[in-house]
Write a structure and sequence with these properties.
With 482 residues, this protein is α/β, with parallel strands linked by helices. The chain has 14 helices and 20 strands. It is elongated and about 80 Å long. The chain starts with a strand and ends with a helix. The structure holds ligand BES, manganese (II) ion and zinc ion.
Amino acid sequence: MLNIKTGDLANLKTELLVVMVCEDDSLSKDPVINSLLGQAGLYPEFRGGAGDELMLYAPTCTKATRVLFLGLGKSEKSNAETFRAAAGKAVSRAIKAKLDEVVFCAHGQKDYVMAMMEGAFLANYFFDHYKKDKSKKVLANIFFHVEKSGQKSFRTMAGKIETTCKGTVMAREWVSAPPNDKRPDMFARSIVKAADKENLTIVDLDDRNIKKNNMHAMLSVGAGSDTKPRMVVLDYRPEKYDKTIVLVGKGVTFDSGGINLKPSNGIADMKQDMAGAAAVAATLITVSRLEMKHRVIGVLPLVENMPSGNAYRPGDVIKTASGQTVEIGNTDAEGRLILADAISYAVRQYNPDTLVDMATLTGACKIALGPKIAGVFSSNDQLAGQIVRSGTKTNERCWAMPMPDDYRDMLKSDIADMRNVSKSRWGGAIVAALFLSGFVENIDWAHIDIAGPAFADNANAYCPAGGTGFGVRLLVDWLENL
Ligand code: BES
Ligand code: MN
Ligand code: ZN
């Protein structure tokens, strides 16, 4: 829980007060903070430099039993992410110390306080559902001490941030869940259960309905699995709206590669291949909780890509919902196939003003941009720019990638309308985006490849290893500013 506190810090009773300082800026004019900084200054190891830390026990000028100072370095070099990360670090420390609560001194700039709230909330989380030992506890309360004049606006802000970050945590939970506990039917049920409590209309298509809608690409990808494909649609429709936005999320609950089976090192983390669907589902739930002004629809194709006697094969030609045929060059390029059908379905059913898809689509994108940055592909530079800007703000970073027309030749097939892969290995993320563009007709569209940032091998300041929930804060920010 994020909470706001005001009042004289001298009387503040807490187990831990956190004070952030820059090398050249104390960030607060509060006399108690000043006096605490004086005490901290007696220790030469703390100068407010980036990464400096000092814990004071039983300081004299407040009733707080501990004060943690965190150095942020030079103020001109610090930004929202500096504060987000520092707040995350403080919460992790508090959890380790088995505390129940923490109070952040939040007397600085508004956007920095917002970032602190995000970092603190997101760090107050771990995934222990499959562990017997549940002795590790998250903090029950996270307080922000603010100046009295701003308390009302900070309280509203905290509520919004908490709602949004809960969405991130929801996506993390889904992505980190093991693949035996989120096969398409189970994942669909879990999404429906979460969405049922919200102001959302739910459409839940089973394989027969998927067939009725001619989504044979989805059926082909799911054919090797004993668990049939599902398609879940979450529709948020406010009474009055002028824009309709569709979000499509790739939901491959486990990507073995199919008959083009992945090697041991590539297959291990493929439970993450539904991270796009997780982010979109959590975004819709968040959108409804925030009562946004646009109509937003989440379209979630859910399948498991497995090899079996019934699996689709390299060489197969399948007919997509759009009517276009695809020759399968590689059964491991399954994401674009299910997205193709989902995009056609979404365009036909909802005729949106803008469609954005989010997908752990290509290893090539992860190679190009590394594990922390997503690729954005759009023929509309303005739309790509909006998404990149939201990425900078939320630190769910995105980089605009090209979609050169002449690269389309790489997807030419001798016998079908197109192939699902290129014959060469170059430009894999771009080729995948170009494939998708063949299904969006003339809708304003962007594709976000999150193969890198959806899943973390290592923890960072405010996210443990595993599902990161990447995309929820990004999409919510983008939608809010539309
Ligand atoms: N799900 C993978 C992409 C992926 C890789 C996601 C690493 C997250 C981390 C996707 O379905 C895939 O297998 N793509 C192939 C495409 C290739 C066969 C053209 C790839 O990237 O190798
Ligand atoms: Mn694959
Ligand atoms: Zn995949």
